[in-house]
Amino acid sequence: MNNLRRFISLTILLTAPLALYAGRDAANPASPHTEYRAYVGNYTTKTDSKGIYEFRFDAATGKMSALELAGETKDPSWVAVHPSGKYAYAANEAGKASMVSAFALDRKSGKLTLLNQMPALGEDPCYLSFDKTGKYLLVANYTSGNVVVFPIGADGKLGAATANVRDEGKRGPNKERQEAPHAHWVKVSARDNFAAVADLGLDRVLFYKFDASRGSLTPGAVLTANSKADDPSSALLRPGTGPRHLAFSRMGPFMYVLGELNSTVTVFTYDARGTYRPIQSLSTLPAGFSGRNDAAEIAVPPNGKFLYTSNRGHDSIAVFAIDPAKGTLTFVAHVLTGGKEPRHFAIDPSGKYLLAENQFSNNIVVFKIDPATGGLTPTGQVVEVPSPVDLTFVAAE
């Protein structure tokens, strides 16, 4: 076992510079399309929602169509569209009864047709992503702290899980939120050979070896109180940070980690020792703010010049400029989201607009992005939708 761990750590050290510079990947340039369908994840429990909703979005004008029900399903708190555009997948967040649903997606009508459902094999799935081949769906289960991989068949249906790994390590100091591992985000590297997992309970970003031929995940060394901060199998955050989501630079070896619990962005650089090393930490809140706040989402637009985060409590988007050489951040502005509890926001594929989803005020508000300053200006476009907590785009037909 010790030899295996040393091998994994060495493999990570040697290949991570190529494997984990995911933000550098020009794999996400601005899209040439202008017409999209936007699918909205939300909660059906204690709301008027019946499932996944969709609307058309015109990236040339920033206008939205009327909202329509795309497919009925229970508590689809995270929705992800397959790279082919033919299928959509939803995390049905329901504690121990949680499921993951597969749908056929009709890009002409926008309707979703259920293909099959699989138990999430964990409690409260909160994030879904695909490997680079599109053959696997990765699921982060928050409450149970495990990551599961499901194969995707040629017909879009989910098969029996090929991997189920529970995060392990020293827990953070927050007794209410960090009493156990809590996987909150998972995504594979640009070369499809590693998966990064943001674990809110452990104050670490964990790196698992991913085998795209088998859909397997292999943990690195088990983390303990004596683990080194520069362990190549993880990136360490300050105690009590509560890493929620990640974004990567499009211009260099920089990783940005959003801390939900302390409302921060921590900037990491990949160094010569083969580890991600923190070089900066900034608050997402205005100086002097003393109310309750939970940071929620983080994203870099296609031009790679800016970074955006959302604040639940202050109810704002924090805007930062990215230094292309150093990867460090400079604060630009706070922009109120026009509602309460912006749990998620999405930048449209053209990179021209940011859509803020206000969970508690049941609306999605559109902002125009200034390409020179990164500033946000509301367009006046607002759509009402029950409890929006996720939004994803697919080119319309």
Task: Offer a concise description of the structure.
This protein has 397 residues and is mainly β.
Query: What is the mean predicted local confidence, pLDDT?
Result: 91
Number of helices: 1
Question: What is the structural class?
Answer: mainly beta
Share of helix, binned: under 10%
Strand content: over 45%
> Quick one: overall form?
globular
Give Rg in angstroms. Answer: 20 Å
Which sheet architecture does the biggest sheet show?
Answer: 5 strands, antiparallel
Counting DSSP E segments of at least 2 residues, the number of strands comes to 30
Q: For the terminal residues, how far apart are their CA atoms?
A: 52 Å
Q: Unreliable segments (pLDDT under 50, ≥5 consecutive)?
A: 1-19, 21-27
Features:
397 residues, mainly beta, five-stranded antiparallel beta sheet, 5% helix, globular
Task: Describe the overall structure.
The chain is mainly beta and 397 residues long. It has 1 helix and 30 strands. The strands form 7 sheets. Strands 1, 2, 3, 4 and 30 form a 5-stranded antiparallel beta sheet that branches. Strands 13, 14, 15, 16 and 17 form a 5-stranded antiparallel beta sheet that branches.
Lay out the secondary structure.
Blueprint: H1 2-19, E1 35-42, E2 51-58, E3 63-64, E4 68-72, E5 76-81, E6 87-92, E7 99-105, E8 112-119, E9 125-130, E10 136-141, E11 146-151, E12 163-166, E13 183-188, E14 194-199, E15 204-211, E16 216-218, E17 234-236, E18 243-248, E19 254-259, E20 264-270, E21 276-283, E22 294-299, E23 306-312, E24 316-322, E25 329-336, E26 342-347, E27 353-358, E28 363-369, E29 376-384, E30 388-395
Antiparallel strand pairs: 1-2, 1-30, 2-3, 2-4, 5-6, 6-7, 7-8, 9-10, 10-11, 11-12, 13-14, 14-15, 15-16, 15-17, 18-19, 19-20, 20-21, 22-23, 23-24, 24-25, 26-27, 27-28, 28-29
